Amino acid sequence: MLIGGAVFPLLGALTYWYPKITGRMMSEGLGKITFLLVFVGFHTTFFPMHITGMAGMPRRVYTYAPGLGWDTLNLISTVGAFTIALAVLLFLVNAARSLKRGRRAGDNPWDAASLEWATGSPPPPYNFPHVPVVSSRTPLWTERERLPVLTGLRVDDRETLLTTVVEAMPDVREPSPEPSVWPLLSALAVTILFVASIFTPWAIVWGSIPVTIALILWFWPRKLEPRPEPVIE
User: Average pLDDT for residues 122-144, to the nearest whole number?
Assistant: First the structure.
């Protein structure tokens, strides 16, 4: 039942994150039709399979002898599968159409509580102009008026704040590393490894080499020396 366990959540996640990625809202009307088609198509496809299974039909076969009593149920499942395909096609049309015609999303169209919805849609490259400070799991619900931000860090250099382990109290300012391409290359190497492993187990062996190299270069210790703070006269 991978459709119910994977495709349903995937379509829901894409709908949820679409406004943050594109700055536009998907059509709610088309979204409701898509949900209805997927819901009906899922049950139309897979419920008859339970009956054909109890009638003796094995899994993953596409042909069988006539007269076994499976024909009508399999026809119903086929109609359901085409219904799911139609729903996915409608979802893609909705996504493509909303890129230009969708309603402007705003920063937080879902009234969500987590920090990613406190920045623009789509977010700017720097995410936040000031580091936000949170005191709960739902910061955007706790601080309805204005989200507090961190002060005291340098504005002419990259810094981050380190806190104590237990109390999470501000402790020291630490130089922040410069942007690096190695996290991206690590992610691409892992993706290629897993996709290739579908076709051959040797992908685990050979694919682990670029993954290891990328991870080593990403996490290789580098001494960060803070530059002198400017003198204000």
Answer: 87
